[in-house]
């Protein structure tokens, strides 16, 4: 260990840096997890303040985020009492006058600044009547370092403790300069020269200097581009390498015989013509299944795009070659629906299908388990109950996982273990379209198939936004639709923190709907009901005995009632974009024109308006996912937490799609040519990966 600390400059402990020392080192350890020179130098600023120029007061606009001014204090006055006590400073540069306001450190300011003195100030202008006003701008005396402007001040993420101890952005940028000077001879280029040249990237050294202390805005952007590229390149290299490893290390059962699939096509039980997208995806799946390589595939398709039939036909590919299959859904309602939907198809082909969920009785289980173990059951549909130990197959060949973002490692292992000889092929289906950039990182180690076409004859859902006070108009529209024989969903939010309130909203809603539509029957489904109660209600609605379904988001995923053509979403402002899109997907499944009504209060934030407008404008899940990514950032999108995606230090998947694409293509082409990086030109990759490995086993930070 010791040897490494002395041989690798970047492993040197931070206390040995001039300007830091042991005490500050402890604070940096605790607050920012910075232990070594390497940690510090990779603590990138999240933005820079442009101090390269001075604005003139007469060119200020409200759009400017922050400006630097150079001028004179004309007056300083303390006004107000108690918590209203504040210092107001009139500041002029000859082109106009602005006002600075300080509520804090008033006495400090009075002591350090004088009327008539010349200063430099930095802050955000806000229009206040005729004048611009600055709240708590930074102000400093003019000195040779700042008098001409000319630098970009890095801004680092800080904690309260750091601020209190004056370990602020200024401090960090000062020690960073010292560190960069010492580190420069130690920087090693981590990218092959070929890539640096091809993409016109900054060298590692230039990038490191300019990310912290940029010479110009252009240099800063180049530094960012270089470091993002590097990060995404190594991220993709790892994922694609895993994918290749997976393919070479794990065999899969070989399913070549398509007789059963043909029988399904020809013997008339196939209810419709497949869309071209469905056919293409089935070809992609069959290409996997016939090769002997293990399939690990993600099937993305918007709600209603027809993933179920694709799953069924994939299962036929396996069953026709003597294997068993399972399909796992996240809820009982969904499992049940799959079972009901597939039963007819399966039985027409002479196949045995079973359902296993948490509510399957002991007696029911006793019937299923032996049949499954002996291979008499061809398809088993279920929930997580399928993962339990007594569920044993004779020869499980294919697992379909429906509507789940990404199942965890432990669950995956359990599924694999269901066939001890040779792991079952895996097809994960999701109706949450993921923007391509995100899919590349999140699912970069899976193969991805996309159904990007809806079955013919579907009318696009019409989506409108209505305010709560126009509820009566909405109700009369619902009445018209129900008269035509349609059914209606009314969905209420259910968010855990305010479960009680939500429940009350739901019940109030149910009562007012029942009162408003005395001539119709109203169903209600929510999370507090027992499984069989929910199921009964759901079935009443499916059979058309009730016309209106009042529900919480339990109906969100997968439920299919083609005659339901109107979806009213209450408090739509409380739902996320992709969740609204999912909910809307419950309608538009039949031949009739379908509608989605988004109900909200009048007061909406800018983001909420954008969400609602996006939904009114498009039905395309991928477009919606892109907006969602931009609004929320990748960290909040479903499934990202467990993927290590958040380890990205500098790249931003919402913005860096182009860089990601280039980095991925570069990683692919290098892996194709030189999978183990033995060519001399790929030496930088080899040694960088080595150093990353060392870093992850570096124990020095524990002492
Ligand atoms: P999802 O992709 O959301 O799971 P489903 O598989 O539930 O979609 O399919 C939605 C509806 O579309 C179902 O009623 C299904 O029978 C129907 N469907 C699927 N594929 C086609 C097709 N090629 N032509 C016509 N209808 C189809
Ligand atoms: Mg589905």
Describe the structure.
The chain is of the alpha/beta class. Among the domains are: 53-149, OB fold (Dihydrolipoamide Acetyltransferase, E2P) (Beta Barrel), CATH 2.40.50; 462-618, P-loop containing nucleotide triphosphate hydrolases (Rossmann fold), CATH 3.40.50.300. The chain has 24 helices and 22 strands. The strands form 4 sheets. The protein has a 7-stranded mixed sheet with strand order 6-7-4-3-2-5-8, with no helix packed on it. Helix 21 runs antiparallel to helix 22. The longest helix has 33 residues, at 217-249. It starts with a helix and ends in a 7-residue tail after the last helix. Residues 1-6, 638-646 and 698-703 have low confidence and may be disordered. The protein binds adenosine-5'-diphosphate (ADP) and magnesium ion (MG). Adenosine-5'-diphosphate (ADP) binds next to helix 12.
Q: In angstroms, what is the radius of gyration?
A: 31 Å
CATH superfamily of the domain at 462-618: P-loop containing nucleotide triphosphate hydrolases
**CATH architecture verdict of the domain at 462-618:** 3-Layer(aba) Sandwich
Q: What fraction of residues sit in β-strands? A: 15-25%
Question: What is the helix tally?
Answer: 24
CATH fold group of the domain at 462-618: Rossmann fold
Return the CATH class of the domain at 462-618. Answer: Alpha Beta
First-last Cα distance: 11 Å
Return the structural class: alpha/beta
Largest sheet: 7 strands, mixed
Low-confidence stretches: 1-6, 638-646, 698-703
Small molecules in complex = adenosine-5'-diphosphate, magnesium ion
User: Mean pLDDT, as a whole number?
Assistant: 88
Question: Approximately how much helix is present in the residues?
Answer: 40-55%
| Strand order, largest beta sheet | 6-7-4-3-2-5-8
Broad shape: globular
- Extended strand count: 22
Protein name: ATP-dependent DNA helicase RecG
EC number: 5.6.2.4
Organism: Runella rosea
Domain Helicase ATP-binding: 288-451
């Amino acid at each position: 260990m010791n040897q490494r600390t002395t041989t690798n400059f970047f492993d040197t402990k931070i206390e040995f840096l001039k300007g830091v020392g042991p005490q500050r080192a402890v604070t940096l350890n605790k607050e920012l997890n910075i232990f070594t020179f390497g940690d510090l130098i990779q603590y990138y600023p999240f933005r820079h303040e442009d101090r390269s120029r001075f604005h003139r007061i007469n060119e200020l606009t409200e759009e400017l985020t922050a400006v630097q001014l150079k001028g004179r204090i004309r007056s300083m006055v303390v006004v107000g009492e108690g918590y209203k006590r504040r210092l107001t400073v009139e500041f002029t540069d000859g082109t106009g006058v602005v006002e600075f306001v300080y509520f804090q450190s008033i006495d400090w300011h009075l002591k350090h600044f004088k009327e008539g003195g010349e200063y430099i100030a930095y802050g955000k202008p806000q229009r206040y009547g005729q004048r611009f006003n600055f709240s708590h701008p930074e102000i400093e005396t003019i000195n040779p370092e700042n008098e001409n402007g000319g630098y970009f001040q890095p801004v680092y993420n800080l904690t309260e403790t750091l601020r209190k101890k004056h370990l602020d952005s200024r401090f960090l940028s000062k020690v960073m300069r010292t560190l960069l000077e010492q580190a420069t001879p130690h920087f090693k280029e981590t990218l092959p020269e070929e890539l640096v040249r091809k993409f016109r990237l900054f060298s590692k050294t230039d990038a490191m200097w300019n990310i912290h202390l940029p010479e110009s805005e252009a240099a800063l952007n180049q530094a960012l581009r270089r470091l993002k590229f590097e990060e995404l390149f190594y991220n993709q290299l790892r994922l694609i390498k895993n994918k290749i490893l997976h393919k070479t290390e794990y065999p899969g059962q070989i399913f070549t015989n398509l007789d059963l699939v043909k029988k399904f096509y020809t013997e008339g039980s196939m209810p419709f013509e497949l869309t071209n997208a469905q056919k293409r995806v089935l070809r992609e799946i069959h290409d996997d299944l016939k090769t002997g390589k293990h399939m690990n595939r993600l099937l993305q398709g918007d709600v209603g795009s027809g993933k179920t039939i694709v799953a069924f036909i994939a299962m036929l590919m396996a069953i026709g070659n003597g294997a068993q299959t399972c399909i796992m859904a996240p809820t009982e309602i969904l499992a049940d629906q799959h079972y009901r939907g597939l039963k007819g198809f399966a039985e027409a082909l002479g196949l045995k299908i079973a359902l296993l969920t948490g509510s399957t009785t002991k007696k029911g289980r006793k019937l299923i388990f032996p049949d499954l173990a002996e291979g008499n059951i061809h398809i088993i549909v279920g929930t997580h109950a399928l993962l339990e130990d007594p569920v044993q197959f004779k020869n499980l060949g294919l697992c379909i996982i429906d509507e789940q973002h990404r199942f965890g490692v432990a669950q995956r292992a359990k599924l694999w273990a269901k066939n001890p000889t040779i792991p079952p092929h895996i097809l994960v289906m999701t109706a949450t379209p993921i923007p391509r950039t995100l899919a590349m990182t999140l699912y970069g180690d899976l193969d991805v198939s996309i159904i990007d076409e809806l079955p013919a004859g579907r009318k696009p859902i019409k989506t409108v936004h209505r305010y709560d006070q126009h509820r009566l108009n909405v109700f009369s529209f619902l009445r018209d639709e129900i008269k035509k024989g349609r059914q209606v969903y009314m969905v209420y939010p259910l968010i855990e923190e305010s479960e009680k309130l939500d429940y009350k909203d739901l019940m109030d809603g149910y009562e007012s709907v029942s009162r408003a539509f005395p001539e119709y029957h109203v169903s209600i489904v929510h999370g507090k009901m027992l499984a069989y109660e929910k199921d009964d209600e759901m079935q009443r609605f499916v059979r058309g005995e009730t016309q209106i379904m009042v529900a919480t988001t339990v109906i969100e995923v997968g439920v299919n009632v083609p005659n339901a053509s109107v979806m009213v979403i209450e408090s739509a402002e409380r739902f996320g974009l992709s969740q609204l899109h999912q909910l809307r997907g419950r309608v538009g499944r039949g031949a009739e024109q379908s509608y989605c009504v988004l109900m909200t209060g009048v007061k909406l934030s800018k983001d909420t308006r954008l969400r609602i407008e996006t939904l009114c404008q498009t039905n395309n899940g991928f477009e919606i996912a892109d907006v969602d990514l931009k609004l929320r950032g990748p960290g909040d999108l479903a499934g990202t937490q467990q993927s290590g995606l958040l380890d990205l230090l500098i790249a931003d998947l919402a913005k860096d799609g182009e860089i990601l694409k280039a980095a991925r293509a570069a990683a692919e082409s290098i892996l194709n040519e030189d999978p183990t990086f033995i060519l001399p030109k790929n030496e930088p990759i080899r040694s960088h990966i080595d150093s990353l490995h060392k870093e992850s086993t570096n124990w020095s930070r524990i002492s």
